[in-house]
Design a protein that fits this description.
heterodimer; A: alpha+beta; disordered N terminus; B: alpha/beta; six-stranded mixed sheet; four-stranded antiparallel sheet; 10 strands
């Protein structure tokens, strides 16, 4: 062999333009990393992140779409435009162009005549496409067994509300007259999908075909007619149409989406959506933590390899290129496998749910497929890349100095990670408020926990002098690795904080929903009760053993002025969702409902009955959202138009109302009867179990003018949706909890090397296995306990903002969590750490020393 | 070939500065073998790192064949190492995830040598490990691992070999065999050898010997 190259005859070549790395070498190093298990934790963390986010996205997307599908039945469409005029022709053309389904409804009040009677009815004329969502239910006899149908009545036929049969003294097959047209009553109308939106003030329903409208001659210039234009399509089509219409609706038309169609559904959907988004955000943080930890460990273990490669001539650029290529490979593999795993996992959950899901789930949205992959890609570069790329700055001279292995910059990695987490949370939730609250909570916790855990670990020192040798050894180890243990406490605390938040939010949401619609919630409303009928009906219900809610007097009226200024002027530029032009149901009472809370001013002391006939001032309590839209304050003078007369009242209190409770509730409650109580009808609600449905026939027969609204099916629908949402929440929680435990294992694994090394030294020095085992247990349990305390503190902080700002629930301190939290945390971390550290005890010390 | 002028290395410590290298001046000719001896912590390995361009001094200059490498950035110093310098370390520094053959091929592949496989096999045969090509470092004894490291150092035909305690982790008998191999191959390939060692016997086999004491270098004349 001879020297083939030398440098004695010239200057050194220092050109660096060509990369030294060829793909086969990169692949080989990566393959060997994989074979030796070096990549396992990083790859598992990435796979876990992508699989979890994909699974949650697919599952929530399907649950979300299913819930909206079901909720859309409340509108009989995916969206609708309501107005006082028919929609413009170009709107219809645009809907057709966008591929939307459409249907039309015309609603008006008219007298319905039979040979033996007449009743004011609410006529609803529908086109043949109605309903676009949900089904109608009709029966051959009033209150008979209903069957479902997907279309309305044929021209010339009418389907009428069950109670009209008694009121008009007719049976199925008889004729009724509306305006100038005669109709054959072909069925009793039991249920319309979109009936649950307005509980009061509607006359009994008559459903006819829209083709019969000209024959009735009921729609004339000046008639009060409502037009509904129903739209059906996918979320994008509906959204596009909403955007297109937003500048065209003007003051005569209103857009109604699925949300807002029913207050109970609206509130359940909004909160469930927030929860699922919160869960998604938290799983992104969990994944980020896991990936960052795994990458940090990977980088640390590659430190000496990089130093060696540098001594062999690799430049920093070569190192960056080598690890970029490796990361790309890892990313691609994780994204493909993780997405597939997430997809399988979501099917596994659906299969596991089995019969628990009442109907087949809707297909997921396309974006759900990409969410996991995008999360994985961003996580890879934001969480994994910084510690791995920091290897480029490893000094080649460190090959000469054992133990010189600090290459990672926590500061820069932390900043990149935090920005990425915020970005991903926003990408996932599209809710900057939610993202910022979670982020701020996490930031406060990380900083506060860092400081507190340092103090707590230091505080264990004076304690140790009263403890046994093993405890002293365990606590000394805790103190010795203070920086490293502080980091671990931060991670554990963050992890448990996220899990505690999810558990707490889930519990309060489920409790709130259960309270919202208890089993005996009123499911029927009776109104148009004349004052002299009220006592008879009370007695009748009592006799039937049907407990009734309080009876409220009710009259219709319109708010026309606030402090002398017209409501029309006040609401000209209002962005409030409240329709201030419509008539209100006005009542007067001594007390307010249990689901009402006085938030400003005070309730009157004297009972309403004592005010009657006196000249005492008329006071009114206004609903908060209604009041806010008009800028009302205590002491304002409101002018109402009631039965053509002007009535003035002073605002004495402002109430918040839980509209989703299904109880009778009112925007305005007065302290005394309006116009001396003349023209007031009474309203009540009661719970009627299915087996007592026939009671309605008797009630209807005895009091034919009383209007009864059955909302039992609506409540069943709401309960079914809430049940679905609750179940989804439970399963997703379980999924995130299990991924949290995996992150816990990852984080313990990531810091195991140091413990392995120390354990090996202890054992070399003759320490018995039991001593090392117990020392490790003490160290992990103490870490777990400290993390638990700090996690509960973080949970309290985040819960305050989440409950009050995001979920609109009342904040309550988590008393029990202060006891249970640290115990759970100590047990889980103690157990996981102890199990993970078995290697330290069971492997021969020489093998351990060689492996690190 | 290698020249160090007025080298100083200081690192900050809690109560001031630690002076690791003090005013080192050294010149090594091509093909020479030079030993640097000294006690632990005297600064031998730090000096080796400076001379090989693994680190840069706080003050002073290092020349490799008239080029001042202390002026170069890390990218350029890496290029220098790739072309002109090889190492043998006390703790072998083999990549555990690569076989003996792949460890020897590694620097050749980094240089883009298409003949890496043939050369690596040839040098492993030279160090007596033709039968252990596919073994991983963990499957080899300490002496065998150091022989793989020797094959790696010489296979890439670098004109300068830096050896940091090459027998420090080996028993006397194995250490002697590895030392024989090192000096034999150095002679065959006419490489310049800079050897850091504790062992006076090993140092005695070099043409020139220097002693490091508290960061100062003194040549021991024969």
């Amino acid at each position: 062999m001879s020297q083939s190259s030398g440098i004695s005859n010239g200057n050194l070549s220092t050109h660096t333009t060509k990369s030294n790395f060829r793909l086969p070498l990169t692949q080989r190093l990566l393959w060997r990393d994989w074979k030796s298990g070096e990549l396992n934790i990083l790859l598992c963390s990435l796979l876990l992140a992508i699989a979890t986010v994909t699974c949650i996205s697919l599952f929530t997307s399907r649950i979300h779409n299913s819930i909206y599908e079901e909720a859309s039945h409340f509108l009989a469409a995916d969206a609708k435009v309501t107005g006082s005029l028919p929609v413009h022709e170009d709107w219809t053309a645009q809907a057709k162009l966008m591929g939307l389904q459409t249907a039309n409804i015309i609603r008006f009040r008219a007298m319905s005549f039979s040979e033996k009677g007449m009743v004011l009815t609410q006529v609803k004329a529908v086109s043949k496409e109605y309903p676009l969502k949900g089904q109608l239910s009709i029966a051959d006899t009033p209150y008979g067994l209903g069957h479902k149908t997907g279309t309305g009545p044929k021209p010339g036929e009418a389907w009428i509300a069950a109670r009209l049969f008694n009121a008009l003294t007719i049976t199925v097959g008889d004729s009724i007259t509306i305006g100038e047209a005669d109709f054959t009553v072909s069925a009793s109308l039991e249920k319309e999908p979109d009936s649950g939106q307005s509980l009061f003030g509607i006359a009994p329903r008559v459903l006819i075909s829209i083709d019969d409208i000209p024959a009735t001659q009921a729609v004339q210039a000046g008639s009060r007619i409502d037009y509904d234009w129903l739209l059906g399509g996918n979320a994008k089509q509906i959204n596009d149409m909403e955007v297109w219409l937003s500048t065209r609706l003007g003051e005569h038309f209103r857009w109604n989406g699925v949300k807002g169609g029913n207050r109970s559904i609206d509130s359940a959907l909004t909160r469930a959506e927030q929860f699922l988004l919160l869960t998604g955000c938290l799983s992104v943080i969990l994944s980020g933590v896991a990936i960052a930890l795994a990458a940090r460990r990977y980088a640390k273990r590659h430190h000496s390899q990089v130093a060696l490669l540098k001594t062999l001539g690799s430049s920093p650029k070569d190192i960056t290129r080598l690890y970029s290529t490796s990361l790309l490979f890892i990313g691609l593999i994780s994204i493909i496998l993780g997405a597939a795993l997430g997809w399988l996992l979501h099917w596994g959950i659906i299969a596991a749910l089995g019969n628990l899901i009442p109907t087949a789930l809707a297909a997921p949205s396309w974006s759900a497929y990409s969410t996991g992959a995008i999360t994985g890609f961003v996580s890879l570069w934001a969480f994994a890349a910084p510690p791995i790329f920091s290897l480029r700055s490893v000094s080649p001279a460190s090959v000469l100095r054992a133990g010189d292995s600090e290459a990672n910059s926590l500061g820069i990695s932390g900043i990149i990670g935090a920005v990425a987490i915020l970005g991903l949370m926003f990408f996932y939730s599209r809710d900057i408020n939610l993202s910022l609250i979670v982020m701020a909570g996490a930031a406060v916790c990380v900083l506060g926990v860092g400081l507190l855990s340092s103090l707590l670990i230091m505080a264990t020192k004076p304690l140790s002098r009263y403890l046994s040798y093993t405890w002293r050894l365990g606590l000394a180890s805790l103190k010795r690795h203070q920086r490293f243990n502080t980091l671990q406490v931060v991670i554990f605390s963050l992890l448990f904080m996220l899990l505690f938040i999810l558990l707490t939010v889930r519990t309060s949401l489920l409790t709130q929903w259960q309270n919202q619609l208890p089993k005996d919630a009123p499911n029927h409303f009776a109104f148009n009760i004349f004052p002299d009928e009220a006592d008879e009906i009370k007695a009748f219900l009592k006799q039937q053993n049907v407990p009734a809610q309080p009876f409220y007097p009710m009259t219709r009226g319109r708010l026309v002025e606030v402090n002398g200024e017209s409501v029309n002027d006040l609401t000209k530029d209002s962005k409030s969702n409240v329709n201030y032009k419509r008539e209100l149901n006005l009542t007067w009472s001594d007390s307010f409902g249990r689901d009402n809370t006085i938030i400003e001013g005070k309730w009157w002391d004297k009972p309403a009955s004592e005010h009657l006939g006196e000249n005492s001032p008329l006071l009114v309590s206004a609903e908060s959202a209604y009041a806010k839209g008009l800028g009302m304050v205590i002491g304002d003078i409101l002018t109402f138009s009631v039965a053509g007369q002007k009535v003035e009242a002073q605002v004495s209190s402002i109430r918040s109302v839980k509209w989703d409770s299904m109880n009778p509730n009112f925007y305005m409650i007065f302290n005394q009867g309006l116009l001396g109580g003349i023209s007031a009808n009474w309203v009540t609600s009661f719970h009627l179990p299915p087996e007592k449905k026939s009671t309605l026939n008797e009630l209807s027969r005895a009091h034919p003018t009383v209007s009864i609204i059955e909302i039992d099916q609506t409540i069943a629908q709401v309960q079914s949706i809430i049940q679905k949402v609750s179940m989804a929440i439970e399963f997703i929680l379980a999924l995130v909890l299990s991924s949290g435990v995996l992150v816990l294992i990852t984080s313990i694994q990531a810091t195991l090397d140091l413990r392995v090394q120390e354990g090996a030294i202890y054992r070399t020095l003759g320490a018995p296995k039991s001593l090392i085992r117990l020392t490790l247990l003490i160290e992990f349990v103490t870490l777990g306990f400290l993390s638990g305390i700090l996690a509960v503190a973080g949970t309290e902080l985040c819960m305050y903002f989440l409950q009050t700002r995001v979920f609109n629930l009342e904040y309550a301190s988590q008393g029990l969590l202060w006891i249970v939290g640290p115990i759970i945390s100590a047990t889980l971390i103690g157990l996981t750490g102890w199990l993970s550290a078995r290697k330290v005890v069971n492997t021969p010390p020489l093998t351990l020393l060689r492996s690190v | 070939m290698i020249k160090a002028l007025d080298l100083h290395q200081q690192v900050p410590i809690s109560d001031g500065e630690l002076h690791i290298l003090k005013n080192i001046n050294l010149s090594i000719k091509p093909g020479e073998s030079v030993a640097i001896v000294g006690t632990s912590g005297s600064g031998k390995s730090t000096l080796l790192g400076m001379l090989a361009g693994l680190d840069i001094p706080s003050q002073g200059k290092v020349y490799l064949s008239d080029t001042e490498i202390t002026e170069l950035d890390e990218e350029s110093r890496a290029a220098v190492r790739s072309q002109h310098v090889s190492f043998v370390f006390q703790n072998f520094q083999l990549l555990g995830s690569l076989t003996a053959l792949e460890n020897v091929m590694l620097p050749l592949e980094l240089k883009g040598d298409a003949d890496a496989d043939r050369l690596a096999r040839q040098y492993l045969q030279r160090v007596g490990l033709a039968e252990r090509l596919s073994h991983y470092p963990a499957q080899l004894s300490g002496g065998e691992q150091q022989r793989v490291a020797l094959a790696r150092a010489f296979a890439c035909h670098a004109p300068i070999i830096f050896a940091d305690e090459p027998t420090g982790n080996l028993d006397t008998e194995t250490g002697d065999k590895v030392a024989d191999l090192l000096f034999d191959m150095n002679k065959e390939m006419n490489t310049t050898l800079v050897l850091v060692t504790h062992s006076p016997a090993l140092a005695a086999r070099c043409e020139r010997r220097f002693e490091m004491q508290s960061g100062e270098l003194t040549e021991q004349l024969a």
